[in-house]
Specification:
By secondary structure, this protein is mainly alpha-helical. The protein is built from 22 helices and 4 strands. A two-stranded antiparallel ribbon has the order 1-2. Strands 3-4 form a two-stranded antiparallel sheet.
Length: 452
């Protein structure tokens, strides 16, 4: 599928802090499917934090800061309470930026090794290697700095802050308030000589180059070359090999903290574990299979509601196909075939369309969409269905102060945004496939990171 003006056509992954719901979700379905998925995974997963290595690297960085601050409380007090570090959180966030700038710089210069540069920084790694970006060759203790634009939100820490809060690793007002979890993390890293050595190296760096500085009302800044010696580079190289992330202690820790051993999540996780490496599978099939043993109804709710969401999304995609200007015979036939292709059980949907399975805002939206689809009983109703879909979309976008992609009047459709689809994509508009996979892609990626 070709997309114009799309958030997909950039160097970083999708991040909902940059792109509003209206940028990729014209019918507002995301709030529904994420509510259903979060009911299973307890809000601990998202669609952008999918690499277990970055979970572990983020944990390491914060562990180092926690240790430094615990052992050097007076130094922290002397640096904070006035500009530029008005609070401890200003300093902590700045140190995170500092560590991520060092990490990205060191890894980018490793050359042809098994260590992978973080995907979000590949573009910047080229600038690092070419030495044509001042930020790329400096490490700054400043939450508003970094290699990336809005690095504090888009870097490794920013992309994992939400999951870490949901796992109770972070507390909302103080990352390190949960002393018990950080003691557990200390034991975790102490089991690996590589990780504990790297942690010690980074701790020395923070103490010597950050906490020992005086607050001169300027952000602490060092050139990478002046603070990263060959010993630290070698510690990174040894530690960041793939096998370092796959020890049993890390597997046990992350499977527990990510909630993958909770009843419903485990049913889905076990489906992924049972896959052969070369298995021909679809996430839809895995969810349907997991639902057989689901006693809570949370997975069954997905199986009941997703066919409705898929129908609506595919209908909207057809309306957004470039050149669609009226409700003619071609459009009616396509919509008719599309609606016939999906298996929707309204009785089952109503069983699960409750606050038990979705949030209040998601339920309100879901009920409106159920009403739109339920009215379709004949070809004549398809015209009304199209009008209702477009008007719903228009009202939704106007409520967000966004311009609608489609409007309709006197039977004429005006496309303010349109798409050109491949033949394969056009075929998918009338098949039985689902559109949303409820974090299974994330679960699968995390599993591969731990075991493959």
């Amino acid at each position: 599928m070709q997309i114009e003006n799309s958030p997909l056509d950039i160097f970083t992954e999708f991040d909902d802090s940059i792109f509003s719901e209206g940028a990729i979700d014209p019918m507002g379905l995301r709030i529904i499917w994420t509510a259903l998925g979060n009911a299973i995974f307890e809000n601990r997963l998202n669609t952008i934090s999918v690499d277990i290595r970055y979970y572990t690297i983020n944990l390491l960085h914060h562990f180092v800061i926690w240790q430094c601050c615990k052992e050097h409380k007076q130094k922290v007090l002397e640096l904070t309470g006035r500009a530029p570090y008005n609070s401890e959180n200003d300093l902590f966030d700045g140190m995170i930026i500092f560590l991520e700038m060092i990490l990205t710089n060191v890894v980018a210069k490793m050359g042809n090794t098994e260590v992978t540069v973080p995907a979000l920084s590949k573009l910047k790694s080229i600038q690092i290697q070419n030495r044509n970006d001042e930020k790329a060759v400096s490490a700054i203790v400043d939450k508003n700095s970094g290699i990336l634009v809005r690095h504090i939100g888009l870097g490794i820490h920013g992309r994992h802050k939400g999951p870490f809060q949901q796992m109770d690793i972070f507390q909302s007002n103080n990352y390190y308030a949960n002393e018990a979890i950080w003691n557990e993390v200390e034991k975790l890293f102490s089991k690996s000589k590589r990780w504990s050595n790297l942690a010690e190296g980074l701790k020395r760096l923070i103490v010597d180059k950050v906490l020992s500085e005086k607050n001169g009302q300027k952000h602490i800044r060092h050139s990478i070359e002046s603070i990263v010696d060959e010993e630290l580079k070698e510690l990174y190289h040894e530690t960041l090999q793939p096998k370092s992330f796959k020890s049993k202690s890390f597997i046990d820790f992350w499977e527990d903290k990510l909630g993958l051993q909770n009843p419903e999540a485990q049913l889905i996780y076990n489906q992924i574990k049972a896959l052969n490496k070369d298995s021909d599978y679809q996430y839809q099939q895995l969810i349907e299979q997991a639902s057989i043993n689901d006693n809570s109804g949370k997975i069954k709710a997905i199986c009941a509601i997703e066919p409705l969401l898929a129908r609506i999304e595919k209908s909207m995609d057809r309306l957004l196909q470039r050149g669609t200007t009226e409700i003619d015979g071609s459009l009616i036939n396509d919509i008719k075939e599309q609606l016939a292709a999906e298996t929707i059980n309204f009785k089952e949907i109503e069983k699960y369309a409750t606050y038990k399975y979705v949030s209040e805002s998601a339920l309100e939206r879901l009920k409106k969409l159920i009403d739109i689809v339920r009215k379709v009983n004949s070809d004549k109703d398809i015209s009304l269905y199209v009008e209702n879909l477009i008007n719903y979309h228009k009202e939704l976008f106007e409520s967000r102060n966004n311009l609608p992609w489609l409007t309709i009047g006197n039977g004429k459709i005006t496309q303010h945004r349109s798409f050109i689809y491949s033949d394969n994509y056009k075929e998918s508009l009338t098949d039985n496939s689902w559109r949303n996979y409820y974090y299974l892609g994330t679960v699968h990626s995390l599993y591969n990171g731990l075991y493959q």
